[in-house]
Structure to design on (314 residues):
């Protein structure tokens, strides 16, 4: 066991029309085990982004069966950053040292929080993220599964400007960070509020590192495990990243530079598509690159793609 002092952590979860996913997540949080650290004082904060309160019963059932404190509120305005700001504001009402964030379509490994705490103690980082691995809820060909897998990084690896690995679906951050930083609500339905948050964090000098053993599993419904979804996601990534850059620095130089990078990605993807010669994996990857580039160009021109108008899974 490390020498970390007993600490207080609020785990923030926003949910929208996924009661079963939320139930799985809460069960995994109740099963957390602590080997490397003293068990922290835990509080779970749930913000339901369904004005009708579809997650209320799941939360009430959890409270009845567990001793972990759980706070539940509804946020009627739709949008991930709006709901996350609501959750963080709820957490800040309590004297918490750290704020963790997870998504409602995930399940945390039983040592997830213990590993995040251990990595924070070892590396002294302000923010930590860890691996999110896919669980396929429907039949998915192996060649297609590879598109959803990410290589794990070394424990403690610095994540500055590594935007493929900074996200808020598996995060532990010092609570003090959120005193003057918030999720930008302009990204309500487009996503990338996490990318923009990390841009602000890095600009202010905060340090983020990787916790290689803090494992979270993302449950993927069949509606998200097909080439069409991959292409839409690639377009959204390019689009939203370009918009994030413009929010941070809207100069003509920034816009032209991103359009140039997007054009290169588009041409690179187009060439990859044309030479794929019927090989499914290469074809899908080529179209991904094409869509990524197109998204960068459209975002640089001020067009916003709102991916999160549709909710996948339950």
């Amino acid at each position: 066991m490390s020498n970390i002092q007993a600490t207080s952590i609020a785990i923030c979860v926003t949910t929208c029309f996924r009661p079963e996913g939320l139930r799985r997540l809460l069960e995994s949080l109740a099963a957390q085990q602590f080997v490397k650290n003293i068990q922290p004082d835990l509080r779970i904060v749930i913000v339901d982004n369904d004005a009708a309160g579809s997650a209320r019963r799941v939360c009430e059932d959890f409270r009845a069966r567990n001793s972990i404190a759980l706070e539940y509120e509804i946020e009627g305005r739709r949008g991930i950053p709006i709901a996350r700001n609501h959750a963080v504001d709820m957490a800040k009402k309590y004297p918490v040292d750290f704020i963790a964030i997870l998504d409602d379509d995930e399940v945390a490994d039983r040592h997830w929080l213990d590993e995040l705490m251990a990595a924070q103690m070892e590396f002294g980082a302000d923010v930590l993220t860890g691996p999110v691995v896919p669980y396929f809820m429907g039949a998915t060909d192996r060649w297609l599964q590879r598109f959803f897998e990410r290589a794990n990084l070394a424990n403690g690896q610095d994540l500055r400007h590594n935007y493929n690995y900074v996200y808020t679906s598996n995060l532990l951050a010092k609570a003090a960070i959120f005193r003057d930083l918030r999720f930008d609500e302009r990204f309500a339905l487009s996503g990338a509020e996490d990318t923009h948050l990390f841009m602000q964090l890095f600009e202010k000098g905060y340090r983020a590192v990787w916790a290689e053993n803090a494992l979270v599993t993302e449950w993927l419904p069949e509606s998200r495990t097909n080439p069409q979804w991959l292409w839409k996601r690639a377009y959204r990534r390019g689009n939203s990243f370009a918009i994030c850059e413009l929010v941070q620095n809207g100069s003509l130089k920034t816009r032209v530079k991103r359009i140039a990078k997007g054009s290169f990605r588009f041409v690179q993807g187009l060439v990859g598509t044309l030479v794929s010669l019927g090989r499914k994996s290469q074809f899908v990857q080529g179209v991904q690159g094409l869509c990524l580039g197109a998204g960068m160009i459209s975002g640089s021109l001020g067009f916003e793609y709102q991916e999160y108008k549709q909710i996948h899974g339950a």
Remarks:
- The beta strands are 8-15, 41-48, 69-74, 98-103, 106-108, 127-129, 132-136, 170-174, 208-210, 216-220.
- The CA atoms of residues 180 and 238 lie 27 Å apart.
